[in-house]
Amino acid sequence: MTWELSPADLPDLARGAALLGTGGGGDPHIGRLMVEAAMRAHGPVTVLDPDDVDDAAFVVPTAMMGAPTVMVEKIPRGDEAVTALRTLERHLGRRADATMPIECGGINSMIPLVVAATTGLPVVDADGMGRAFPELQMETFGVYGVPGSPMVVAGDHGETVTIDTGHDNRRMEWLARGAAIRMGGAALIADYAMSGADVKRTAVPRTLSLGLALGRALREAREQLRDPISALTEVLAPTGYSHLRVLFAGKVADVERRTVDGFARGRARFVSFDGGSTLRTSFQNETLVAEVDGAVRCIVPDLICMLEAESGEPITTETLRYGQRVVVVGISTPQIMRTPEALAVFGPACFGLDHPFRPVEDVVPVVG
User: Fold this and answer.
1) What's the angle, vertex CA 18, arms to CA 16 and CA 19, rounded to 5?
2) Which of 92, 153, 306, 321 satisfies CB 3.0 to 4.6 Å to 315 for a cystine?
3) The CATH number of domain 226-360 is 2.40.390.10
């Protein structure tokens, strides 16, 4: 179903996007403020269900790339993503019929909404990651045959770089990362231009709707003094993300975080409230693996999400700090992200992790 997104929806969507971002994807609060400003100036956004997109439609995703920690201080000017879109349109000689997220987590759930509000284009309710990943080749679009390039990287001084590596999405990522670093560590992009038919074939569907529903569930649970984990479980059960497992509850004991090669990289250690158990995580923008007392409990591409223990608010890797009381959950990814082809692009080995992928629902039993 096609629907209209209003400014009143944005706080819930930002909260849900932070959850789906698994700690990365950039600060959705900043993205929310950008969308609010664009909506005040231009009006609400039409969100297209992927089933309603014409097969011949021309869809151009838009996004931010770079280290999330940079975006906390280096706020975009606001028009870079539209500049990237228009530059790619001129390069390809065709106007876009819609835009779409490349990832549904963090700020990148918001950037296409800024573009949509500013240009009047609709935004497709789907994305290419079903969460957030740190690198541009890590897209279901690319897994199933859509090339990422030609792409455009746009900076906040009006500069643009057009990159065309054919079907080599990994080299596209490498070149674009270098451009983004030289633009200050973060930039706005347009890439993975595709047909409506390719959207239906390669995208993870209805992830904007899911982010909105998750954010609303967390807010209502807090207002009604309900358990936020139960609220999330109810929303996820009928979707492709049908399994949620509690991995750990405790306090942040240590965080090591640094910005390297355009990524926020680091590790964190957590101690259970009774002091008897330890959780260790590592992240590259997003949290990649959760090990409890030395045993892997959840690993990429399944989602590892950190929530404030009392409020249920999602915690990003750039705001993780000593002493926070957290609940860490694992959420299963849709089957389109668990095929051998998909795991070859964004499975554990792609991040240098020496562990096989095992679905979180097979590792962690249901409690209660």
Assistant:
1) 65
2) 306
3) yes
